[in-house]
C-alpha cells in the first residue's frame, strides 16, 4: 500500500474506531513509519539496527543473498509487509521441502499470524497499534506474494490485464511494464514500472511483488495475472474490494485494541461503522489516481473536525537522540513495537519448521529488548 492509505486512511479508520484525534495521528504516523524505518535511519539516530522494518533500494542492492543474508531480508519483509497466511499450507503440486517452505511464506489476509499481530498490540502504546495496522493492511494489498526473494514464488510473466469499469462490466486493457523507476506510472496508457526479470532464484528483484510493480499498492486498480507459484493459473485482483475489507478490518481491530470490544476474530469487518460515509469511501477507492492522500485527508478532517498534520520523517528524531530514557520516547515506543512484531513472526516461522527467516530463541520479558538489540543472526521471542 502507498502512503495515502498507510497514513491518511489509517487516521480515518482510527477515528471511526473511537480513538481521539491525537491518538489517531500517532497511530497513523506509526503505521507509515514502518515504510521508513531502515537501518540507514536507525544508524543516524543511533538506535538498534534490528528494529529495521523496511530496506532502502540501496540497502537491498548491497544485501547478501547467501543463507544468512536471505534470512535477514525475510525477517523484515515477512514480519511487516508480507505476513504469511498459512505456515502449514500445502502447495498445489508435489514439491520438495525448499519449495514448500517458500510457498508457506505467501502473504494472505486472515491468517493465524494476523491474529497474533493484533493481539500483540493489545494494552500497548499507540505506536504498537500503528505497526499492527500496517501489517494488517498489507495482508490485503500484498496477498499472493512472499516476503522473501524467490523466482518460483514471486515471478510472473507478461500476462497482465487491467480491468477498467465500463457500463455494467469491465474493459480489459493489456498492461505494459517498463523498468524506469524515475518515470511515474502512466494510468491513461496502462504503463507501469516493475522489477527486471531474472532467472536467479534468490535475486533481490524477485522480492515480494516487484514483478507486479506498484499494482498491488494502488487502491483503484483491478487486474488479472499469472503467479509462478500457482502453475500460472489466472488470479483476479480486485483492489477496491480488498482495500475496503482492509479498512473495515482495521476498524474492527482497533475497537478491540481500544477496549470497546473484548475479542478480535479473523474475518470480521465493521461495515456498519462506515455506513454513513460508504459512498465517499467507495469514490476514493475507485478513483484512478496515483496518490489518494488529499481525498483521504479531506475525509479524515471531516470525521474529526481537526486538521491532520503532514507526515514529517524527522519529527521525533531529536527527541530520541537527546533523551536519556530512549525507550519512553515516541520512536523508542515504535522501536519496541517493531522488535516485538519481528520477534513474534520469526518465532512462529521457526517453530513451524521453516528456517527461511532464521532461528528464534526464547527470552523472558525482562531480557527481551536487550537480546533483540544485540542479536545479529536471529531474533528473540518472548
Structural overview:
The chain has 382 residues and is of the alpha/beta class. The chain folds into two domains: 3-150 and 240-381, no CATH class; 152-239, no CATH class. The chain is built from 16 helices and eight strands. It has helices spanning 3-16, 21-33, 39-44, 57-61, 67-80, 97-103, 112-120, 126-141, 151-154, 239-258, 271-274, 278-286, 293-304, 317-322, 330-351, 368-374, and strands at residues 156-166, 169-174, 176-178, 191-193, 222-227, 235-238, 359-362, 378-381. The chain has a four-stranded antiparallel β-sheet. Strands 3-4 form a two-stranded parallel sheet. It has a two-stranded parallel ribbon with strand order 7-8. Residues 362-367 have low confidence and may be disordered.
List its salient traits.
single chain; 382 residues; alpha/beta; 2 domains; four-stranded antiparallel β-sheet; 8 strands
Amino acid at each position: 500500500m502507498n502512503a495515502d492509505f498507510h497514513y491518511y486512511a489509517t487516521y480515518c479508520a482510527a477515528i471511526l474506531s473511537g480513538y481521539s484525534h491525537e491518538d489517531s495521528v500517532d497511530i497513523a504516523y506509526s503505521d507509515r513509519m514502518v515504510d521508513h524505518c531502515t537501518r540507514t535511519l536507525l544508524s543516524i539516530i543511533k538506535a538498534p539496527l534490528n528494529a529495521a522494518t523496511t530496506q532502502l533500494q540501496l540497502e537491498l542492492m548491497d544485501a547478501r543473498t547467501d543463507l544468512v543474508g536471505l534470512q535477514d531480508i525475510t525477517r523484515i519483509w515477512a514480519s511487516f509487509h508480507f505476513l504469511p497466511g498459512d505456515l502449514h499450507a500445502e502447495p498445489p503440486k508435489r514439491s520438495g521441502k525448499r519449495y514448500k517452505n517458500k510457498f508457506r511464506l505467501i502473504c494472505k489476509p486472515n491468517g493465524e499470524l494476523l491474529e497474533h499481530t493484533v493481539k500483540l498490540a493489545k494494552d500497548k502504546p499507540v505506536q504498537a497499534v500503528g505497526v499492527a495496522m500496517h501489517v494488517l493492511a498489507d495482508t490485503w494489498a500484498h496477498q499472493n506474494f512472499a516476503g522473501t526473494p524467490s523466482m518460483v514464488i514471486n515471478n510472473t510473466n507478461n500476462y497482465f490485464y487491467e480491468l477498467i469499469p465500463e457500463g455494467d462490466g469491465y474493459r480489459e486493457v493489456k498492461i505494459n511494464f517498463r523498468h524506469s523507476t524515475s518515470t511515474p506510472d502512466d494510468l491513461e496508457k496502462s504503463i507501469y514500472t516493475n522489477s527486471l526479470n531474472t532467472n536467479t532464484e534468490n535475486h533481490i528483484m524477485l522480492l515480494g511483488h516487484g514483478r507486479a510493480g506498484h499494482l498491488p499498492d494502488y487502491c483503484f486498480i483491478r487486474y488479472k495475472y499469472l503467479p509462478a507459484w500457482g502453475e500460472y493459473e489466472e488470479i483476479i485482483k480486485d483492489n477496491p474490494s480488498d482495500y475496503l475489507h482492509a479498512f473495515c478490518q482495521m476498524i474492527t481491530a482497533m475497537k478491540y485494541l481500544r477496549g470497546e470490544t473484548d475479542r478480535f476474530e479473523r474475518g470480521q469487518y465493521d461495515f456498519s461503522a462506515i455506513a454513513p460515509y460508504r459512498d465517499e469511501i467507495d469514490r476514493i477507492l475507485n478513483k484512478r489516481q496515483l496518490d489518494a492522500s488529499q481525498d483521504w485527508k479531506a475525509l479524515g478532517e471531516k470525521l474529526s473536525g481537526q486538521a491532520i498534520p503532514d507526515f514529517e520523517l524527522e519529527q521525533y528524531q531529536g527527541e530520541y537522540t537527546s533523551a536519556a530514557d530512549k525507550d519512553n520516547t515516541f520512536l523508542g515506543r515504535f522501536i519496541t513495537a517493531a522488535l516485538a512484531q519481528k520477534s513474534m513472526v520469526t518465532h512462529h516461522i521457526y517453530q513451524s519448521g521453516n528456517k527461511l527467516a532464521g532461528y528464534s530463541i526464547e527470552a523472558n520479558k525482562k531480557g527481551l529488548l536487550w537480546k533483540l538489540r544485540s542479536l545479529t543472526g536471529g531474533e528473540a521471542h518472548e
